[in-house]
Amino acid sequence: MGSSQALALWVVITHLLSLGGGFVSCAKPSFWPSSATHDEAGCLSWRVQVSAYVDQIAAAADGLDAWIFDIDDTCLSNLLYYQAKRFGAYDPMAFKKWASQGACPGIPPVLELFAALQDKGFKAFLVSGRDEETLGSGTSQNLESEGFSGYERLMMRTPEYRGQSSSVFKSAMRKQLVDEGYRIRGNVGDQWSDLQGDNVGDRVFKIPNPMYFVP
Ligand SMILES: [Mg+2]
User: Fold this and answer.
1) Interatomic CA distance for residues 147 and 4, integer angstroms
2) Residue 50 has what pLDDT?
3) Which of 7, 48, 50, 154 is deepest in the core (most CB within 10 A)?
């Protein structure tokens, strides 16, 4: 499949992810619905649910209201990598090479959520199972280039957590934040292992991922 076809597929996928309501604080890409309709409000899209929740909550003045964001296929898309691998078995070396290039496209509806929450005074924490030592620099640059800036902290897998499940690692990161006094008001990820375990937050929002499963 050529690069133009890959781009077309990416546009289709991001369009599907965007269906069902939006956030009013950011300009929407041209392919988004212009406004939420009655029918959209009745569907079960994660975006409808998270938008309604965000409208209801406020951040306290103490700066301790936090949201957790996963990175891979939540903030940044790996669709082009998996497409090139024909959606086959996970290849850790090839994925590391892809991720180190810092060329993952940002996912528009998640960026809008990210910006809307920061506008409301919430602190965004990016928690990723990516290896900090080898992918820390490329990941932070990739986030910045795709508009994910102003976050409170990027928390990646350090050597002591290598070999542990995503659920165990992410639970430990969330516990660290809670121990620091943060209140986790929401948690967004494409894997259930992002959203299960300890201190998951007041509400969790599962983004669809038809490509793979991480325990
Ligand atoms: Mg992920």
Assistant:
1) 24
2) 93
3) 50
pLDDT reported for residue 44: 63
Q: Where are the domains of the chain?
A: 3-27+42-206
How many Å lie between the centroid of ligand 1 and the Cα of residue 73?
5
Output the CATH code of domain 3-27+42-206: 3.40.50.1000
Please determine, for residue 70, whether its predicted confidence score (pLDDT) is greater than 50: yes
- In this prediction, residue 47 carries a pLDDT of 85
Backbone φ and ψ for 124, nearest 5 degrees, come out as: -95, 130
Q: What is the pLDDT of residues 7-44, one digit of tens each?
A: 454 544 444 444 333 333 334 444 434 454 544 544 56
Q: Which two tokens stand for residue 25?
A: 């604080």
d(CA 157, CA 162): 7
38 CA to middle of ligand 1, Å? 31
> 137 CA to middle of ligand 1, Å?
18
Cα–chain-centroid distance for residue 125? 10
pLDDT higher than threshold 50 for residue 115: yes
What is the rounded end-to-end Cα distance, in angstroms, of the chain? 30
Where does residue 85 rank: exposed (0-12), middle (13-18), buried (19+ CB within 10 A)? middle
Q: Supply φ then ψ for residue 115, to 5 degrees.
A: -70, -40
